[in-house]
Design brief:
This protein is α/β, with parallel strands linked by helices. It is built from nine helices and 23 strands. InterPro entries: AMP-bd_C, AMP-bd_C_sf, AMP-binding_CS, AMP-dep_synth/lig_dom, ANL_N_sf.
């Protein structure tokens, strides 16, 4: 049995060195989100039970820590958009498979240079580090996303991974390729900006611009759930449970479809769909329709209980100057009438995960409690 080492370290070369050292010794690593308050860090450590922790105070052995299996490489806390984060166990083989498939799809060479600026506690940021380590690519690490720093390093770096809100704050032409994940990508984007689909459970993006990466199989179940079978899939969750069935298919909890030529279209999370008058409404589709009215992070579409319709479509926003008429006119340009929001709720903020996913359940809970 091998150690699970929690790295409570800022994104830095030291993080990379400690990760590399742990792997050399056959141990696994649990990155701790540096933006978490102390109590949240304690809860995460208690939940995932690492055997050791490395921080600015040095290395400490933790009482009651649980080791990992031989061959495990990473334990990654899920983003938690639908509940308490789980620990996803990724093996050395799955991490290597992800690095190889991504590098092949991007035609990465030794002349390329990755720029890392996303949180390392999430696979979108962590996979930049692991790809660079495993494929021998040059790497520059930033402690956080800063548009000015991105601009400065764009003269030497060729590859970067971002979320949509960050993309809007840089000049994408400065990079050879930009991987975009975390939340719904903008419909109009430069050709070098590659929309990805993946989960913590797949170690990073496994579909680029609708096309599965090398070795990735996609299947749509009878109830429209996206199923994934690939060498990148996790071994299990930290508690031993799994969302992978006996045939090797990972049940993603996402709803989608495949076109005749094999392109994957992701519609959203199973729990996010709004059923109003027996019609299904996808919040992301309505958000895309009305996006021109808002700045990023200013709004979200959710469903609230309704005695007549079962659920009603509503908009939560920090803006006070948007009317239902404006929203209705835009929605009806691309969507049927039943997708039109019935109400607008003014909120202080739109809660999101660290990688930009809207916490719809949190908004629903707050609005239901106050209305």
């Amino acid at each position: 049995m091998k150690a699970l080492i929690a790295l409570d370290i800022e994104p830095s070369q030291r993080f990379v060195d400690e990760l590399s050292k742990a792997w050399d010794e056959g141990d696994a690593v649990l990155p701790i989100d540096q933006r978490l308050p102390i109590e949240a860090k304690k809860q995460l450590i208690n939940q995932l039970n690492p055997t050791h922790i490395i921080s600015s105070d040095g290395r400490v052995t933790l009482e009651g820590g649980q080791p990992v299996e031989s061959g495990d490489a990473l334990v990654v806390a899920t983003s938690g958009s639908t509940g308490i984060p789980k620990g996803v166990v990724l093996t050395q083989e799955s991490v290597l498979a992800s690095a190889k498939a991504s590098s092949l799809a991007l035609d990465v060479t030794f002349d390329d240079h990755w720029y890392s600026c996303l949180p390392l506690a999430h696979v979108g940021g962590l996979s930049v580090i692991t790809r660079s380590l495993l494929m021998g690519t040059q790497l520059t690490i930033a402690s956080r996303f800063d548009p000015d720093e991105v601009e400065r390093h764009s003269h030497s770096c060729t590859l970067i991974s971002l979320v949509p809100t960050a993309l809007q704050r840089i000049d994408p032409r400065k990079f050879r390729a930009i991987l975009l994940g975390g939340s719904k990508p903008p419909p109009n984007r430069p050709r070098n900006v590659i929309a990805t689909y993946g989960l913590s459970e797949t170690g990073s993006g496994i579909v680029y611009e609708g096309r599965p990466l090398n070795g990735v199989e996609i299947q749509i179940s009878d109830d429209d759930e996206i199923l994934v079978r690939s060498p990148m899939n996790m071994r299990s969750y930290r508690d031993g449970s799994s969302s992978i069935d006996s045939d090797g298919w990972l049940h993603t909890g996402d709803i989608g479809s495949l076109s005749d030529d094999g392109l994957l279209q992701v519609q959203g999370r199973q729990g996010d769909v709004i059923v109003t008058g027996a019609e299904k409404v996808w919040p992301e589709a309505v958000e895309t329709a009305i996006a021109s009215l808002f700045e990023p992070q200013q709004f979200a579409v959710i469903g609230l209980p309704d005695a007549e319709w079962g659920e009603r479509v509503v908009v939560a926003t920090t803006r006070t100057d948007i009317s239902l008429t404006q929203i209705r006119d835009l929605v009806l340009q691309t969507l049927p009438n039943y997708c039109v929001p019935k109400s607008i709720y003014i909120v202080d903020s739109i809660p999101q995960t660290a990688i930009g996913k809207i916490r719809r359940n949190e908004i629903k809970r707050d609005l239901s409690a106050n209305n």
